[in-house]
């Protein structure tokens, strides 16, 4: 399967930054519908979400993501696309969502302009995020920091901006206590040390 991200044939951080490249499954591989026009943005902060429904490793993440997009673009929500810029499955697979240079959408009331929305599949009030999800989240944040110049200290959760339990207590604790930020910063620092 050919992996690509927007105009790239393969998305990855520089080899020095990660032991293994961060691969992102393109929209075509999860049968995404064509997005409708929506507002442009400059990604300036990281916002972490969960899907809010239990998700197990043996479930078909690509099919689930396609169904979320179809529901969101239907009369039920009338969104322009899947609401998130990236989605991470339980096995750590990262899926391309909407273009990061366009505003995300939400079931809750807050201004999504400038937010790079990352969704982890699962209900983290009922289950724990997998180690693979957290590792991919770290790599994705490090990559997006380099790609879009998004400050690492902007990492927040959906519940920090809206009345919601998202991203669930088990994932929120990693956002709130700074462990996700520290892991991403460590990856960036290590890469810079190797580069110099």
Structure description:
The protein is of the alpha/beta class and 196 residues long. The chain has one domain (41-102, 113-195): Lysozyme-like (3-Layer(aba) Sandwich), CATH 3.40.80.10. It has helices at residues 61-73, 131-148, 169-176, 179-195, and strands spanning 24-25, 45-50, 86-88, 94-96, 115-120, 156-157. A six-stranded mixed sheet has the order 1-4-3-5-2-6, covered by helices on one side.
Strand content: 5-15%
Number of E strands? 6
- Specify the biggest β-sheet: 6 strands, mixed
Task: Indicate the structural class.
Answer: alpha/beta
Strand order across the largest sheet: 1-4-3-5-2-6
CATH fold name: Lysozyme-like
The low-pLDDT segments are 1-18
Give the termini separation.
35 Å
Arithmetic mean of pLDDT? 88
The ordered H/E elements are EEHEEEHEHH
Tell me, what is the CATH class?
Alpha Beta
SS summary, helix count: 4
- Helical content stands at 25-40%
Shape: globular
Q: Could you say how many structural domains there are in total?
A: 1
Gyration radius from CA atoms, angstroms: 16 Å
CATH architectural arrangement: 3-Layer(aba) Sandwich
- The CATH superfamily is identified as Peptidoglycan recognition protein-like
List the helices and strands and how they pair.
Layout: E1 24-25, E2 45-50, H1 61-73, E3 86-88, E4 94-96, E5 115-120, H2 131-148, E6 156-157, H3 169-176, H4 179-195
Parallel strand pairs: 1-4, 2-5, 2-6, 3-5
Antiparallel strand pairs: 3-4
Helix pairs in contact: 2-4
């Amino acid at each position: 399967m050919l992996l690509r991200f927007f105009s790239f044939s393969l998305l990855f951080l520089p080899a020095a930054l990660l032991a293994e490249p961060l691969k992102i499954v393109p929209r075509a591989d999860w049968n995404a519908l064509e997005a409708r026009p929506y507002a442009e943005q400059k990604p300036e902060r990281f916002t972490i979400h969960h899907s809010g429904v239990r998700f197990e490793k043996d479930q078909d993440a690509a099919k689930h993501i396609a169904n979320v997009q179809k529901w969101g673009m239907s009369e039920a929500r009338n969104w322009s696309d899947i609401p998130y810029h990236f989605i991470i499955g339980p096995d750590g697979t990262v899926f391309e969502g909407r273009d990061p240079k366009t505003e995300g959408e939400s079931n809750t009331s807050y201004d999504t302009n400038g937010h790079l929305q990352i969704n982890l599949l699962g209900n983290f009030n009922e289950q724990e995020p997998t180690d693979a999800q957290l590792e991919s989240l770290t790599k994705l944040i490090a990559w997006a920091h380099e790609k879009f110049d998004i400050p690492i200290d902007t990492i927040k959760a959906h519940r920090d901006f809206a009345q919601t339990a998202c991203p669930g207590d088990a994932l929120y604790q990693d956002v709130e206590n700074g462990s996700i930020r520290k892991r991403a910063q460590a990856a960036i620092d290590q890469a810079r040390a190797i580069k110099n």
